[in-house]
Amino acid sequence: MKITNYELYQVPPRWLFLKIETDEGIKGWGEPVIEGRAHTVKAAVEELMEYLMGKDPLRIEDHWNMLYRSGFYRGGPILMSALAGIDQALWDIKGKYYNAPVYQLLGGACRDSIKVYSWIGGDRPSDVGEAAKEAVSTGFHAIKMNGTEEMHYIDSYDKVDAAVERVQAVREAVGNGVGIGIDFHGRVHKPMAKVLAKELEPFRPMFIEEPVLAENNEALREITRHTHIPIATGERMYSRWDFKPLLESGHADIIQPDLSHAGGITEVKKIASMAEAYDVAMAPHCPLGPIALASCLQVDATAHNAFIQEQSLGIHYNKENDLLDYIKDRSVFDYKDGFVQIPQGPGLGIEIDEEYVKERAEEGHNWRNPVWRHQDNSIAEW
């Protein structure tokens, strides 16, 4: 079997899909994208795919190493996201070739389903108490919310109090049995992250996410001294080499590699195993489309330390299209009692509606994240 062709589809709301074709008629799908930089990742995929034309798609480990190691410059969000989508598509082909879900080719499942959480609120969260109650009423046992708006290095306690009040409203709305993930989104700098972590402790969050940006991971050492809340991070880390110092430091409790950013199925499976050796849990990042989610679930099935999965159904970014729009059998992502079953179909376990993908790619998108500024007009972290 040989790779004969590929196509890329930039589809709303902010996704990029890759289809790889073979001479035996088997097609694989991947989702290589950086939110807000889809066109740039598309160009990187085109460059990398030149190396794979005419090659056997089943040699995934060799292809991964060739695409990663043969470039003098390696790593980073663009190259690793391009590699991630290619890797997903190759695994999809391999599973279809052997008529087995990807997780079976990774050693088999250690679980049948995994807990999922629902996003509530938006970039500037408000009225989250009612949104949380609605999510729980539909069967979710865990939710995630943005914790705060923009914050300066040192900011007012008015903003701290507002964040605390929102979390309190959610806890009061859903009770003590529902997990609450609080995403700092890298918007908060170390001085205020310490304050917020301390103030939020009474509401027993499931975790606080990205209390500081990954480029400032050394600050986690001090933040962990101020709170018992589990610390989650990793969505802006792109390889096992990025995660290595974080795991060695012992200051993260949950890692959140993204299957469309951190080198795909091949790499995240290795990152998960590294984390397990440090007794660190995994909750893959996935505010993306159905191919990314299906890839996450294949790894979740085989990773003992995976405990919950992010998914984008109804997330505030999904305006023109939502998670289920691009797949033929929507039941594969049915959420029941707060869990989703691991897909059992061959490959990634989903069937892409190719005609609809092509139709929506005609419209495409040019999604960009907001540019925020502080009151003094300096740039704020979004």
From TrEMBL:
Tell me which residues make up the Mandelate racemase/muconate lactonizing enzyme C-terminal domain: 125-230
Q: What class of enzyme is it?
A: lyase
Keyword annotations for this protein, in alphabetical order, are:
Lyase, Magnesium, Metal-binding
Reported EC number(s) for this entry are 4.2.1.6
One of the Pfam families matching this protein, by short name: MR_MLE_C
Q: What is this protein called?
A: Galactonate dehydratase
User: What SMART domains does the record tag this protein with?
Assistant: MR_MLE
| Molecular functions per Gene Ontology | galactonate dehydratase activity
Question: From what organism does this protein derive?
Answer: Pontibacillus chungwhensis
Gene name as annotated:
dgoD
